[in-house]
């Protein structure tokens, strides 16, 4: 692979703090690299250096003479006075760029719903981000560097960007480097991972899942003393192995290695125990929205506007004790408004909110203004004002231990709140809510400004939290990790269940866009542990039923096949265990019978082959049912 650009012994310091210390690395054609690391460890600094937007204190950055680098900063760098069209394509006539199918595809994927002649300053944060991405992607860059590209993008936007980056070049052409906290995105598009930490950069093969496994292996082999960090890595690994089905389609040797590492790790959540605790704290009734309709009031200055179409139209949602619900939907679909309705901040136009007698809610908003009243306090003092000792996951921890669990070192605990970074304030904001001991917690985009290690720590805290949880997020990894089921706001005033998770939501949106209609027409009710989903959720979407390529007879047969295959796999697993025991017994004797061992091994190989064939049949049958 041809070399594109590289860094030789680069060092960068800010005051007395060294961010990068004699780092050497490079990008070659075909590289698809994701950067991870804690906030403040130098990810953005390294990217700016490689993009030649700044220079190192020591060392140098070199690139091949003809290499064209495209760079997307975290900050909004577009001229607010420019119209959208001029900001993207300059003064080029419409027919000039429209003749290029690649540019047309980018425009359709990112800015189709953005007013072409609107000024940049009038756009929302998400729209400005998509305009900046479109401007970058239509240009013929050899290397693309993206610093937090998924910020302000909804689930569809993130999925589109992932698909575009995978299809933009052939496998041995071009290169990109991306910094993002979106772990699904890292797994989807990256084939290598750089971990930036303590002034160095450690390379790993594979995306985020492979990086987690490799880091756990590295820590185990080196007997790293960082026990708390290692436990978080192993617990995250346990989720990767036991989580969503799509994440288990990895090479067999990787799965076996993961099983060895997590054999002594418990499930991320003890669902039964948490459910019992939640019922004890909450009683039977939590929060119920019954036949609620709501139309937002007209914006200031919109004279004569009655508020437009209703945001919610006769929706019903029932939250059970200990339920963990994830909400998805495009920007503007009403996710934040739904949280405010549940929290009692606004009242519906019709219908009602029923609230249990013991319910105590807390909501994490998208901004951090809640910390304005404690700016002069230190981090530890903010938490100690609530209590000195807390119960987490069935054990008591001090305020200092709890603060440290969410990434505040002993030195950082004594930092004034006003001096914290955006990510650190976000962590403190969440921690302050948790120590208030609410029994219904609502999180609105909780991943904003958090690095992957902090996200894992937050998830670890939420695993032992026994209340009802409602999460609004475009981070599908987080949704699948901390919630048990998801629901969607599809922009038609309805709320529907997603038994197929985020993948089903994306499919519904694609079908709706293809047909020119809004998908989903049935009201859905919540489903917690042990609760049934609504008829609309259980039966799937009308669009899915209409477009299904398999008859009902085929589906019935597939279901029978699945039951048969699962029974056979159970029997084969028992046979394999028995053969392994016989091999252990034969190998432990003083006079080893090698002929018997060879015969037993051959039988074990036959069983393994049969298992693999049945697993393929199982996958084929499950695809028919999907």
Automatic annotation (TrEMBL):
Swiss-Prot/TrEMBL keywords: ATP-binding, Nucleotide-binding
Compositionally biased tracts (Low complexity): 534-548
Sequence ranges of Basic and acidic residues compositional bias: 549-562
Location of the ABC transporter domain: 5-223, 287-516
Domain of life: Bacteria
InterPro entries: AAA+_ATPase, ABC_transporter-like_ATP-bd, ABC_transporter-like_CS, ABCF_ATPase, P-loop_NTPase
Ranges for region Disordered: 522-562
Keyword Cell membrane appears in the UniProt entry: no
Keyword Cytoplasm: no
Annotated PROSITE patterns: ABC_TRANSPORTER_1, ABC_TRANSPORTER_2
One GO molecular-function entry: ATP binding
The protein's name: ABC transporter ATP-binding protein
